[in-house]
Structure formats: C-alpha cells, structure tokens
Write the structure tokens for this entry.
Amino acid sequence: MRSFTMNNGLAIPALGYGVFQMSSAEVAEHLPEAIDAGYRHIDTANAYFNEVAVGRVVAGSPVAREDFFVTTKLFPQSYPYAQCGPDIDATLERLGMDYVDLLLFHQPYGEYVAGWRAMEEAVEAGRVRSIGLSNFSAAKVREILDVARIAPAVLQVEAHPYWNQHALKAELDGTGIVFEAWYPLGHGDRALLAEPALTEPAARYGKTAAQVVLRWHLQEGNVTFPKTLNAQHMADNIDVFDFALTEAEMARINALPQKPYYAVPDEPPAFTTRRMDYSQQA
Ligand SMILES: NC(=O)c1ccc[n+]([C@@H]2O[C@H](COP(=O)([O-])OP(=O)(O)OC[C@H]3O[C@@H](n4cnc5c(N)ncnc54)[C@H](OP(=O)(O)O)[C@@H]3O)[C@@H](O)[C@H]2O)c1
C-alpha cells in the first residue's frame, strides 16, 4: 500500500475503506472482507453510528492494531473545550481503542478554534496520533492555523473529477496539509463513471472507470476511502497501483466541468447543531 507523508512526519495509507451509511450489521459483514482484501485504513465518524462495530471488527481481526490506520470524526457538539476531551474519551471507548490514528473535526461550525486545543492535548496524551479537519474552507483552516501548536495534518473534503478542489489546494499551498477526498467516486454517479475521459484510459489499461478515478486521485495526491458493499468493487478499488495515467490523461480528466454535489453552507445546518446520543449502536 502506498502512503503519503503528513506535515507531522507520519504516514497515512493513500487508500482505505469508508463506512459512511453502513449499519453496524453491514460493518460486521463487510469490513472483515475489506481487511481480507488488504485494506488497513478505515474511515468512520461519531455521526456514522457504527464505531462500536468498527472497533469490534478491528479487535477481532488477526491483523495487529498497529497495522491499522483508523480515522474518526467529532461533530460540532463536541468542540467546546470542556466537552472535547471527554467526548474524545467516549469515542475511544466506543471504538474499544486506546488511540486513533487520525481524528477530525467533521463540520466547520461552532467552537472549532477553542476545541482545537483539546485536540492538541489528545495528541500530547497519546490518545490521537494526528488531527485534522473536514469540510472547512481555506479561511476557516487559517483560523485554526493562526492558533495551532499542532497544525491540521489533513483536510477531508468532497473531491472527485467533477470537483477537483484545485482552487482550495492552491489557497492552502505551503501548509503541507494532505487532502482526503470524500465521494471519491462521486458517490457512485453513473454519469461520472461513463465519462470518455475515464472510460478511454480504462479500456487502454484494462481497468474500470472507477479504477481510473482512484488512480487519478492517487496522482493528484488525494487520500481516498471508497465505500462499497460489493466484493468485486472492493478488490478493484485497491488494485490501482500497477498502472499510471499520463500527463495528457490527467489533464483531460482535470478539464471536466466542475461542480460539487454538496455545497457546504456558511451557516450551520440543523443536523450539525443538535447534541446526538451515540450510545445507541446496534
Ligand atoms: N467528511 C465527510 O463529510 C464525508 C462525507 C461523505 C463521505 N465521507 C467518507 O467518504 C467515504 C466514501 O464516500 P461515499 O461512500 O459516499 O462515496 P463513494 O465512495 O464515492 O461512492 C460509493 C458508491 O460507489 C459505488 N462503488 C464503489 N466502488 C465502485 C466501483 N469499483 N465501481 C462502481 N461503483 C463503485 C458503491 O456502490 P457498490 O456498493 O455497489 O459498490 C457506492 O454506491 C465514506 O464512506 C466516508 O468514509 C466523508
């Protein structure tokens, strides 16, 4: 597995398995298949309500804990400084882990500046290895950078060939922040996967359009964790290290029309502000 190096010197596997919109039962069934297929990087979140199931699979796996790279995320309810430490402890308890490899602030609302200090303290206490952000604009990332003793190591945002995030990357150039792509396959958008800019290289290399997208991400420097419940897709998605797109093929993909599937609102949507009870996980 190829890795990228974060600005704290630690490695992050370039490709993983995302468990968004997976029930605990689906995690129990499919995450072991992903581990068997070679995935070691898992992307979950408090708000996915499946951390208990993820933790059980990792604990029951023959693969050693230190060989996994586990990411989870806190919602804005957890950002107030006094709340953040206890909520990190509760997160680790649900996962049944004494550390996570990467912890993110999931949404760019609320007391993220104050909470960042609690994130740094969790790193210093060895509870978290790396910390980062998700769905933050460059301006909001800079608010954190202005106070940070430990800079965000990653920024997880929507990214795929229809939303390549080149503008955001340019704004954060020089920070060493590694970009992680959510919706790496456009959430399975058939129109995206039918683009000739993807299907033509796919035919040339004997790959699928989805594999070409994931290869494009790798060459763009994006970490991805495509989600799939399909065993063939699971095997395909990790089989992208034996071919390379040419500069012309990359440029053609980067010339596709740009539009996000989801525009992050400036004001917090209701789902980000209420306090959620994560204790109820089947
Ligand atoms: N930070 C955030 O706010 C945020 C938001 C959204 C997602 N995420 C993270 O990003 C991960 C991925 O996002 P996502 O699951 O929404 O979108 P995605 O990975 O872009 O797309 C998943 C869809 O693509 C299909 N698919 C997967 N592999 C395929 C292949 N090889 N060929 C054809 N279709 C394929 C899947 O269907 P099959 O099951 O049929 O393969 C599924 O419907 C999530 O699991 C989560 O970890 C984070």
Q: What stands out?
A: Residues 3-186 form a domain with the TIM Barrel fold (CATH 3.20.20.100). The longest strand covers residues 128-134. Strands lie at 3-5, 11-13, 17-18, 41-43, 69-74, 100-105, 128-134, 154-158, 178-182, 223-224.
